[in-house]
Design a protein that fits this description.
The protein is of the alpha+beta class and 362 residues long. The chain contains 10 helices and 5 strands; from the N terminus they run ααααααααβαββαββ. The relative contact order is 0.08.
Length: 362
Amino acid sequence: MHSRPLHLPRLDPLRLDLVVAILLTVAAEAQILAGGTATGLVLAPALVAPAITLPVAVRRPYPVAVAVWMVVLSAAQIAIWGDPQVVGVTVAYLCGLYGLAVWADTRSFVLVVLLMIFVALPVASTGPDTNFANAALFATVEIVAMVIARRVVWRQEERARLAQRERDVLAREAVVEERARIARELHDAIAHNVSMVVMQAGAERRALEKGNGSPHDVLETIERLGRTALTEMRRLVGMLRSAPEDPLAPQPGLADLTKLAERLNDDGAAVEVHVEGDPRALPVGIELAVYRIIAEALAGGPAQVHVRYGRDTIELEVVATRPVTVDVDRGARLLAIRERVALYNGRLDHDSVGVRVVLPVR
């Protein structure tokens, strides 16, 4: 089975970080060359700035290394030349600390925080325009912000994991329920046919009861084997029936599509059914699958249904003729269709307006 839903393009996070790193580098160099540094220096900040801004591009795969590099380099720069107060460099530094807060493991996070407290803070406080109190205040704000960001992001991720786990459980339950439904329907369809074989064989045997020839023996064997198969089938899948007392009846097929469309049209759905090719009798399971797939694909709005008979396949297409509100059951209905298609090794394509299915009939 092949399922190809349509997805909107997503921006690669690593590519986004690369773009941000380049923009921060350009902005920092432009500010430095324009003389916008607090220290009045140009060469030293111009050389250090790219070393701090460019690592933003790899902060996701290497959050600890990037944070350590930025903390050490920034502390050394402040201690030697003072804080140039370049906006691009400051933003890059904060991006590096954010990466440490949300992507590093707890042990690495704690070690880098200790590095900031016992190494970077004392070194930075020796700068020409920095005192220990100001450096300590800035470091405290940084650490508190990182801890808050870490807790907030981790809580969101935990909620997302729990929600995903719940969705997985619901999906598995839906698969089990749908497979049980398919098994019940196939049981009814096959059991009905077997019952007809048994009844016909029994009637023929009774008609030949007066004779002792071979037709009598053959029909008696057919009847016996049919009854045995029917008994074993009921024993095998009878546990799947939610209401064992339901009467045995034939399941719907292609001949019932017109009735399905009429019933939906009575509710104002405006469904049209078009059949192409040479209609022919198909296996009962295929006809049942076609009926159920079309019934699941019709979302209640106006739609065109196309059934195409091929030599070895039957193709189904259900397309909404005007936009309809996507209900919350769409995922469950697609799951039901997917199970039907997988049962017969078919192919499924779907998008926001239609469902297309190809089922082999041999």
